[in-house]
């Protein structure tokens, strides 16, 4: 029984694994590589690894990026919401 308790305390003081604790641990920040290092200390960017984003054409869109201050607030209570959901289900 004492060994179990001793093991619980050992695991409890371990804490969060960071790059400063433990060897051969690199957490990273999910950015990924965009190239490779050269043997002379430089860095060569590989254009196949560079992220490119395709944005659709919004030139004819009537939507605005923000909500106007003059728009009315819609405060529906839970009962009204529940009645609306139940009417759609049944």
Structural class: alpha+beta
Question: How many H/I helical runs?
Answer: 2
Give the % helix: 25-40%
From the N-terminal CA to the C-terminal CA, the straight-line distance is 57 Å
Strand order of the largest sheet: 1-2
Question: What's the overall geometry?
Answer: flat
The poorly predicted ranges are none
Mean residue pLDDT: 77
β-strand amount: 5-15%
The helix/strand order is HEEH
What's the count of strands? 2
Please outline the major beta sheet.
Answer: 2 strands, antiparallel
Global Rg: 28 Å
Structural key phrases:
2 helices; alpha+beta; 2 strands
Q: What's the arrangement of secondary structure elements?
A:
Layout: H1 2-12, E1 35-37, E2 43-45, H2 78-89
Antiparallel strand pairs: 1-2
Describe the structure.
This protein has 90 residues and is of the alpha+beta class. It contains 2 helices and 2 strands. It has helices at 2-12, 78-89; strands at 35-37, 43-45. A hairpin with a 5-residue loop joins strand 1 (35-37) and strand 2. It is flat and about 65 Å long.
Compact overview of the structure:
The chain is of the alpha+beta class and about 90 residues long. It contains 2 helices and 2 strands.
